[in-house]
Records
---
Amino acid sequence: MESTDFLIVGCGPAGGTAAREAARQGVATVVLERDAVVGAKRVCAAGLRPGFCEEFDLPRSIVHLDPPTITLSTVKKTYAFTVGPAHTTTREELDGTIGDLARREGAEIRTGALFRTLRRERDGIVVEYADAAAGTRRTIRARSVFLAQGSSARLDDVDARFRHAGWSAGLITCLQYRIYPERPAAPAAYATLEMHYYRSPFSGRNVIAWMFPKRDHLSIGLGIQAKVPGAELRAEQGAFLATVERRLFPGIPYTVREEGNLLYGGLPRTTIGADGVLVGGTAAGLVDATTGEGIHEAATTGRLAAEAVAQSHAGRVRDAAPGYERAVQRRFYGRLRRRHRLMTFLERRPARFDVLFRQLEETPRFATMLQSDRDAFGPLDRMYLYAQAAKFSLSALYA
Ligand SMILES: Cc1cc2nc3c(=O)[nH]c(=O)nc-3n(C[C@H](O)[C@H](O)[C@H](O)COP(=O)(O)OP(=O)(O)OC[C@H]3O[C@@H](n4cnc5c(N)ncnc54)[C@H](O)[C@@H]3O)c2cc1C
């Protein structure tokens, strides 16, 4: 049977980064990607946090725009914040570039390869997948496996230890339009990342919507944490689009490309490493419940997976999984669990969004700290954070 050191499922930011960085460290790496072209079918607003390209050594050519402002809007008001600046791109460019760089380091990326299942044997993990081009099932043996197949990752059948009771309830139905205006939109459109939080006047459901500008188009979309019928989603999206169009491109003809996908917005999986198998990115549940951001978390888990697998490859640890799991949990779980609790609290009474956004606008230090991971805080920072959190909780109770 064919064999490799490191087998990765999925070539999104998690899988692609893991492949690039593991191959760079001399680990024989194979990636299975179900799509025919890496990144071509990803539906995403593709906003990147400040410094992302530098942190992951990616060329600036993938960046479309550097909006210096983010606005958070409720039905009452729009609150504006300065960001570092953030960046926008497309997933064709982001995932495609990471994939190319991984190949250059020596990783083999097999497209049209649909992961089916895996089983553990005495001399490794045997992964079974469908080869779309050949129309056959194939197997490959690996010492370590990284599962990074995004929101489609129902891992119950793969390993009972990865079971996550809240997985289905955490899925968010998203619809996004790429709007290509025939003339440039208002200048404000290209300087701002817009996030909108409201309760739908049609269905009463909580909606998160966005407008992220790109070089040649605007990504305008929304997500609802439930299974939502297509007609309802389109009506919701039509109403939101009309409000953005009135402000940013009134009277300008445009064409539309419609895209839909699931995002995961629940709590992280409890177990993400077991006997040589590591789970990363969205498959591990590492998406920020308040913003839907997860590219940075995904790429970071790819990096941590590559480091853990390189350690195992060099014989420094027997199994890459436990060290990987500890590192990811330490880095992300505190913040993502806090974000999930916060979102649940806000959505129960949407007037609370205004209380939070007003406080963030008045205290930029609090806004910055909410974005940071626990490791970044000293004792004084923690006291400040708790005091701000207490102030918010008290004000929000009366909202
Ligand atoms: C509408 C929308 C807007 C978003 N906007 C943002 C944003 O602006 N900024 C941000 O940071 N995050 C955003 N996100 C979240 C972001 O897309 C995810 O956090 C990120 O893609 C996670 O990367 P990943 O590598 O874990 O998984 P993915 O990017 O989902 O990649 C998984 C890969 O695995 C492949 N795959 C799946 N199943 C199999 C299989 N069985 N066999 C082989 N391959 C398989 C897929 O084809 C895909 O290439 C958004 C998500 C959505 C849906």
Note: Residues 320-348 form the longest helix (29 residues).
---
Amino acid sequence: MKTAITELFGIEHPIIQGGMHYVGFAELAAAVSNAGGLGIITGLTQKTPELLAKEIARCQDMTGRPFGVNLTFLPAFTAPPYPEYIRAIVESGVRIVETAGRNPEAYMAALKAAGVKVIHKCTSVRHALKAEQIGCDAVSVDGFECGGHPGEDDIPNMILLPRAADELRIPFVASGGMADARSLVAALALGAEGMNMGTRFIATKEAPVHDNVKQALVAASERDTRLIMRALRNTERVLNNRKVERLMEIEREKGDSLRIDDIMEQVAGVYPRVMIEGDVNAGAWSCGMTAGLIHDVPSCKDLIERIVSGAERIIRQRLTGLLEGRAA
Ligand SMILES: Cc1cc2nc3c(=O)[nH]c(=O)nc-3n(C[C@H](O)[C@H](O)[C@H](O)COP(=O)(O)O)c2cc1C
């Protein structure tokens, strides 16, 4: 399947693995890229630019195919040294960057001067248009269903994607709620040039996270995520657990006066404990509604092949069959 996204990134299938904190290590990015998709290393999981350069080198040892690096621009008090992270990326020879969080305008000149293709992940049409205006090559349109930060507009992809298609000139992929062949066909029908998956890629053989995390996703249903931190305007979709229930109790008690300090115990330092140690109840960690569509832990190759061949079947048999009056 050839789309504007496969052409832009030089990949075989229009499937991207979104950057994920403590999940997007070299093993996963290489496995996705080797399977013909676009794997992405999560830049800030590496605590320094030097460590990121090492992680990129590890990934280059595992794949000769294109992969990218995610740079998330956080509303942090002490900003990470982004220019140095960008230098590490560029000097390592990586030519694809997924930006997310705040608008990457301040770093576009450095990225473009080095010939980097930028795909910005955002949750609204207005932010996607801004990304187009500042020179991003593509956007990843992240709907309300997504794991992680869906923004504050709460627009699901059934509306957000055709709205993006109506307004954008640069290509975009559908992100959030994407999990299988049906997602890919639907994304293409709604005007996207491919799809970006987060949660689904955690439950794969190569994702270098504790098996408890993968099993928690297999066990969870589409009703098991919760939205937290709305009062902070930093809404996050997470998998429910006891700590998340406690956090939501605190949110109800504090109302609009909630401060990040009130929920530190439930959100700080959680990722290594969940992803590495396997304590899935350690606190709040991002998870999408696609948990309800995850029933197994395949290899990335099997997952991507299943999606691509399933999409072809849906298009050729079910959809074409409907046009030709055949029961599908
Ligand atoms: C555990 C987890 C961690 C994530 N960490 C990041 C991150 O550090 N930076 C980022 O831009 N997106 C992050 N995301 C969002 C994903 O890249 C992707 O946009 C999202 O998962 C898509 O929705 P889906 O989970 O329904 O596929 C994370 C998602 C998950 C599930």
Note: The first helix runs from residue 4 to 9.
---
Amino acid sequence: MSSPRSVASLSHGTGKRTLQQQRSEAVQEEKKKQPWAVGKNAALFAFFVVVLPTVMILAGVSHTPAAAATRLGWTMLGTFTARGAVQKRAEENNRCDTSVGRWVREPSVPAYTAATCPTLPDSKNCRKYGKDPGHLYWRWRPDGGCDLPRPSPARFLAAVRGKRLAFIGDSLARNQMESLLCLLSQAEAPTKVSADDDGVREWRFPAHGFTLMAITTRFLARAEEVLGGDGRPTASFDVHLDAPDPVWASRHLRELDYAVFSTGNWFFRVNYFSEGGRRVACSGCSGDADAGELADFGVAHAVRRVVRAALEATARCGSCKRGLVAFVRTYTPSHFEHGSWFDGGYCNRTRPLEEDEAPSWDQSIGWDVRRAQIEEVTSARKTTTTTRFEVLDVTKAMMLRADGHPGRHYDKRSAGGGANDCLHWCIPGPIDMWNDVLLHKIAETASPPATNLR
Ligand SMILES: *[C@@H]1O[C@H](CO)[C@@H](O)[C@H](O)[C@H]1NC(C)=O
């Protein structure tokens, strides 16, 4: 699996403008999250500029020029909205936006080590295979003065006591689970519940009644390998955009308190898309004989459709727990340079990219994928009051971490000879930050403690 469009190989752009764009985007998102704020201002406007002057005129104060009343209205409206802005700024400070920020050097010890994490898989154990440990000593500092503290394992476990959390997605979802297992192992040793038969892994922390799962689904939707003329599977998939993968949707969703959806990297190959059982589009297929008249959706649009279907299925899930919180973890790119997974690409940088070393990050397909994912969460929020939808927006942070992959320093037994892994993340490593954000959000959305569990 590979996505050769590495951020480092993109053409140049202007970093300053793009940051501003991103900020205004964040402001837009904030507005969407708080429609009441806009509605309240509109109501105040209507009252002071339209209703109040009208009432004054009708009440016989007709000698008062309407203009004066209107002026009064404007003044009072100004006072109210200024107060609203102050209050809103305070709220924004409380709701720390962890999606924008920068990596700062932090000469402290990593969150954990291989010695404290017996479950750490060899393929991500970068130190063991000789990787320079430089990638461990960076911390993501969000802009705007808010802090993203590293959660203590005990605090995390206390917050999820009695709950069940699943990472639902491809091998990067599993990667996040592996990071969380290592983090939590310091407080309690997990026990493995299920073998990896149907792509579902399950661990329990018995003293806390907490269950952690990784459910493998490459596309979130049902997908089959496309067979070639010789009857053998090709590299392409037929993805059923409107059909959530039953491995999570039918079997496990109803058990969950927290679902963390992610997808993206498998869309960067030639794929075909079906709706209602009929092929309707493709991605990357132009010039392909099989494609015929099919429209090329492109990666971001295809991801949008499967995320929408997943969130709709979650919102509609009648048998799901009340208070289910569904997260979408946004797309993270690979960092192959001078090639891809299959033809000698590598990633041997030893420090995070500076913003101007990843100049057009916000014009990349990966950024479009992120935007589509966030927009779908925003729309899903409007459809339900029982499920909470949240975003783990890690795209920008991870775009800069070209140094955080196993690269050539991973277990050669599984490498099939020579390939570099510039897609998954070392643990310990920058992926630990995804779980810092996760706990931050879980604490933020904390519902009253569940009483019916355990
Ligand atoms: C990365 O690998 C390339 C090709 O082998 C080499 O030229 C370069 O010096 C390496 N960079 C680092 C930082 O090791």
Note: Residues 348, 350 surround 2-acetamido-2-deoxy-beta-D-glucopyranose (CB under 6 Å).
